[in-house]
Amino acid sequence: MEPPSEMVHWLFGMGVLFLGLLMLAEVLAGPAVWGRRPWRRYLWPGLAFALGVLMWPVMTFFTNSAIHMVAHGAWAQALMAMGGAELGLAKGKLHSRWWKLATPIGIAVSGAAFLVHEQNGWFFARSAFLHHLVGWTLVGASLFPLALVFRPRSAALQTAFALCVVALSVMLFSDRDLAPVFGHLSPLAGPPHR
Amino acid sequence: METQLLRELPGGRVLTGARARIISLLGPLTMAAGVVWAIAQPYRLTLLHPHRQGFWWLAVEPPLLVVAAGVVFAVFVARPLLEDLEEADGAA
Questions:
Q1: A71: which residues sit within 8 A by CB, 6+ positions away?
Q2: B interface mutation test: which of A6, A11, A21, A24 has the most B CBs within 10 A?
Q3: How much is the ipTM here?
Q4: Within an 8 Å CB–CB cutoff, is residue A29 touching chain B?
Q5: Min Cα–Cα distance to chain B from A40, Å
Q6: pLDDT class for A66, splitting at 50, 70, 90?
Q7: Number of structural domains found in chain A
Q8: Which of A116 and B1 is assigned the larger pLDDT?
Q9: What is the Cα–Cα distance from B74 to B29, expressed in whole angstroms?
Q10: Structural domain contains residue B15
Q11: Which among B59, B66, B78 has CB closest to A17?
């Protein structure tokens, strides 16, 4: 009764796409207008936290190997810590700007989790390619929230980070369990399907 | 060209207008992306050919997920945000 893993990627892709849209809207509206309705401040941190919570069932039901379990578990914790810290900052319970470091750390751990649990090469199959691409994209994208700790009002950095999140959703939606990538598909991967 | 209008508006209001337009376009553009995907890969929409499809293939249809994200964003986020932008613009 478990969904194919590609569908899990698509469902997370929808969540990540919504996250990216929220981040873009926040940058465009500016912090003053975005904060006019209190619930809006909790939207993207809450969604990031929820994505972390939802990573636990992924860890539980998609335990293909020990490294999968460890990667998904670490990832769930990092996303929840990131969402939790941002929620605390939005609520005003946390004051130190260093809590903002939870976001680049959460994103970097997410990237590392993608990279370590993909044990095939880039051109083994499309899913392998996308795991490498998503992993490195996340590791690279973590530099934007890291820079935002020191330049929190930079619209350019915020926009770049939001666009990376939208790009990430496109990558997640492109995932297929068994499909070629640029004409490459390892014979070890099995026959491709839709 | 609405040069007369633009000349009368302070720079900040023009900028707010441009931002509001972009925000109002985010949802429809997302929905359009989902529709284009559905047209390009109709076999991803199993609702169009539901026979012999399992539960998950009927429940998770990626172009519809993209459209859903766009609809939810447009209705629940963009609309109140645009109202607030307009209000802030009026107060300024």
A1: A112, A113, A114, A116, A117
A2: A21
A3: 0.87
A4: yes
A5: 8
A6: confident
A7: 1
A8: A116
A9: 10
A10: no
A11: B66
Say whether residue B60 is in contact with chain A using an 8 A CB cutoff. yes
Number of structural domains (chain B) is 1
- B55: in domain: yes
Amino acid in the structure at residue A18: F
Interchain proximity A28–B19, CB inside 8 Å: yes
Q: Label residue A41 by pLDDT band (50, 70, 90).
A: very high
Chain B residues with CB-CB distance to A17 below 8 A: 30, 66, 69
In this complex, is the C-beta atom of A14 within 8 Å of any C-beta atom belonging to chain B?
yes
Q: Read off the tokens for A76.
A: 């769930």
- Does the pLDDT at position B28 exceed 50? yes
Angle A153-B77-A53 (CA atoms, 0-180°, nearest 5)?
A: 80
Asked whether residue A35 is assigned to any structural domain, the reply reads yes
* Average per-residue pLDDT for chain B: 85
Q: Note whether A21 and B77 are within 8 A (CB).
A: yes
User: A129 lies in which domain range?
Assistant: 5-179
Q: Nearest by CB to A3, from B26, B27, B56: name it.
A: B56
Is the per-residue pLDDT at B68 higher than 50? yes
CB neighbourhood size of A190 (10 A): 11
Mean local confidence (pLDDT), B29-57: 90
User: Exposed e or buried b for every residue in A55-74, given b needs 16+ CB within 10 A?
Assistant: beebbeebeeeeebbebbbb
> Structural domain of residue B73, as residue ranges?
28-91
Does residue A194 lie within any of the structural domains? Answer: no
Please check whether residue B70 lies inside any domain of the structure: yes
Contact B65 A32 (CB under 8 A): no
Rounded to two decimals, what is the model's pTM? 0.89
User: B72 in contact with A at a CB cutoff of 8 Å?
Assistant: yes
Measure in Å the smallest separation between the Cα of A14 and chain B Cα atoms.
Answer: 6
Residue A24 has pLDDT above 90, yes or no: yes
**Is A189 a residue whose pLDDT tops 90?**
no
Contact B65 A11 (CB under 8 A): yes
Is residue B3 assigned to a domain? no
pLDDT greater than 50 at residue B6: no
